[in-house]
Amino acid sequence: MRKLFYNIGRIWGVESVPLAYKSGNEMSVVDAVDNAWLLAEDGLIADWGAMASDLPAADQSLDCTGMELLPGLVDSHTHVVFAATRTTEWELRLKGASYEEIAAAGGGILNSAAKLRVMDEQRLYDESLERVLRMIAHGTTTLEIKSGYGLSLESEMKMLRIARRIGHTVPATVKTTFLGAHAVPPEFKGNREGYVEHVIDTMLPAVAAENLADHVDVFCDRGFFTPDETMRILAAADKLGLPAKIHANELGLTGGVQAAVKAGAWSADHLEHTGEEEVLVLRQSQTMPVGLPGTSYFLGIPYTPGRMLIDAGLPFAIATDFNPGSSPLCSLQMAWSLACTQMRLLPSEGLNAITLNAARALRLEQICGSVARGKRADFWLTRTRDAMNSVPYYFGVNHASQVFILGNLQ
Ligand code: NIG
Ligand code: FE
Fold first, then answer.
1. In a domain, 349, yes or no
2. Do both 180 and 103 map to the same domain?
3. What is the best residue among 219, 290, 318, 329 to mutate for testing ligand 1's pocket, by most ligand atoms within 8 Å of CB?
4. Among 84, 133, 190, 321, which one has the highest count of C-beta atoms within 10 angstroms of its own C-beta?
5. Residue 304 Cβ < 6 Å to ligand 1
6. From 90, 272, 326, mutation site for ligand 1 pocket: most ligand atoms within 8 A of C-beta
7. 203 & 344 share domain
8. What is the mean pLDDT of each run of 10 residues along the chain (410 residues)?
9. What radius of gyration, in Å, describes the C-alpha atoms of the chain?
């Protein structure tokens, strides 16, 4: 099936020679074609060109007059399978309590786990799917989903089964991550070592045996898991063929980035606290630094120094961290705007951060993340003119008019 999209005002993010990712100065490069057509064939991008050239033959044609086209957005870090929002805790935070204080008192992740454990699997699936559909409506066509609100073998498996099921239901690409080491559950209170052993000896092998996860994550931070515990979990995961993506340096300079790099993690996410040493180790690695501006916005904590990372010649990706406690944000468009206003990324750098570099954080850059021949025909159309600049500028609304996945309208 050949589908022709024609009269497109501008295609943003085209790549004639696809790159694996962009770092440093390259991050401000976004190639575009004006007055263009794009041909999708059997769900993949076959070709594009200027309207002045001969149009290719197609089975179906769509007139895109008045629209600009952007690559499908890639959300490399979400916790979209969850049971309930944490509005009561939000009030406590608004009155002055910190995220860490609430967590230490048994709230936060443990609050989410208590609610998720008792929620029926079908209902949890239905509500999570609804959120994923909302993400897609905002232009997201590839996403990662973490477990981590189960914190028992049974409930972590329930979360991962749901994430996999969502992946089989929606046409978006869905990758899953086992985050058993997100917090120490009540059953292991005061016995973190016992829980780390349980994660390594029982949970990881079971998750791997059922092929429920594509990666493994650990919340490596103050009050959660140490770099040493993180390394042990990631080494066990590596033996099972599971690559690492970790939560690092959200709450302090805790050695999480170093642990991620040592473990050869595909990405190190959060990094609100990043110093020169972290920059140095990242520069000697293939680990993608990922900023989560929705979390900084919602928790009132520092923003990841994205500007500094890019100026140091590093690549940088942005994700929503969509979750019920620290970042109830489904829209990468909004994350893009926050990356510009709060981290001082240029709109072009922000676009690369939520497309190509985010795809790289999932090692999916060969199939998505830009408009390139042979990649998936995942993209969105907007009526917003000069979209690359205007989408992050006019924040707080959904600019996506139509979202296509594998060339099909969603
Ligand atoms: O990325 N930092 C750890 N975990 C998640 C969500 C935690 C939560 O539910 O509060 C995050 O912010
Ligand atoms: Fe997270």
1. yes
2. yes
3. 219
4. 321
5. no
6. 326
7. yes
8. 98 98 98 98 97 93 98 98 95 94 92 97 98 98 98 98 98 98 97 98 98 98 96 98 97 96 98 97 98 97 98 98 97 98 98 98 98 98 98 98 98
9. 21
3-state secondary structure of 220: strand
Whether 236 and 325 share a structural domain: yes
For the packed helices 121-137 and 153-169, what is the interaxial angle rounded to 10 degrees? 40
Token couple for 28: 């401000």
**286 and 396 co-located in one domain:** no
Show the domain range for 281.
74-361
**Is 366 part of any domain?**
no
* Residue 139 alpha carbon to ligand 2 centre in Å: 20
Amino acid (one-letter) located at 244: A
CA of 247 to the centre of ligand 2 (A): 6
Place of tokens 């110093």: 275
Per-residue pLDDT, 380: 98
pTM of the model: 0.98
Contact 32, 57 (CB under 8 A): no
Residue 318 lies in a domain: yes
Residue type for position 218: V
Do 67 and 81 share a domain, yes or no?
A: no
Same-domain status, 296 and 389: no
**pLDDT in the model for residue 127:** 98
Which ligand is in closest contact with the Cα of 327? 1
Report the CATH number at residue 379. 2.30.40.10
Nearest CA to ligand 1 atom 1: 321
Residues 276 and 353 in one domain: yes
The candidate with the shortest Cα–Cα distance to 378, out of 141, 203, 159, is 141
Domain total of the chain: 2
Distance from C-alpha of 410 to C-alpha of 404, rounded to nearest angstrom: 6
Distance of CA 206 to the CA centre of its chain: 25
